[in-house]
């Protein structure tokens, strides 16, 4: 009898897996992997699901992330999963947290050589009370920009947008 490889499929109904070899057009929650984090987020947003963990396998993901409320993102390892935007030329926020979200076990990298606003992780509204950032390395850097000019560079930015009604 020859030795063979047995492929075991484990159902993970509350997991959206992301791998560099995945396919956003074939990926689905609880099944085939997505290629991008935003592919998994789009599936979550389309389904309106909550309680989904986006499980990210090793690689560098050149994406900006807006976490859908009630869901989480977890890298396999802080040292092997990087979400980045490098050499940006416009104001950029790398990760925007949603209500009741969690991001963990990832490295975040945001760089620019221009005078633009950089935000590594944004906690808008009341997300600073309900969202969690754990075991994460974060770099937001525009130190190579010219010495003349102004920039706002925030590793973590927590803010509330107020809306006034008149009348």
Structure explained in plain terms:
The protein has helices spanning 37-47, 127-130, and strands spanning 15-18, 53-56, 59-61, 65-66, 72-75, 81-85, 92-96, 102-111, 118-124, 132-141, 153-159. It has 167 residues and is mainly β. Strands 1, 2, 3, 5, 6, 8 and 10 form a 7-stranded parallel beta sheet that branches. A 4-stranded parallel beta sheet has the order 4-7-9-11. It has a domain at 59-159. The longest helix has 11 residues, at 37-47. The model has no long low-confidence stretch (mean pLDDT 91). It has 2 helices and 11 strands. The N and C termini lie far apart (82 Å).
Q: What is this structure's SSE topology?
A:
Elements: E1 15-18, H1 37-47, E2 53-56, E3 59-61, E4 65-66, E5 72-75, E6 81-85, E7 92-96, E8 102-111, E9 118-124, H2 127-130, E10 132-141, E11 153-159
Parallel strand pairs: 1-2, 2-5, 3-6, 4-7, 5-8, 6-8, 7-9, 8-10, 9-11
State the distance separating the first and last CA atoms: 82 Å
> Sheet with the most strands?
7 strands, parallel
Percentage of helical residues? under 10%
Element pattern in H and E:
EHEEEEEEEEHEE
Q: Using only CA atoms, what is the Rg? A: 18 Å
Beta-strand segment tally: 11
Instruction: Label the overall shape.
Output: globular
* Category from helices, strands and their pairing: mainly beta
| Stretches with pLDDT under 50, minimum 5 residues | none
- β-strand percent reads 35-45%
Mean pLDDT: 91
Supply the number of helical segments: 2
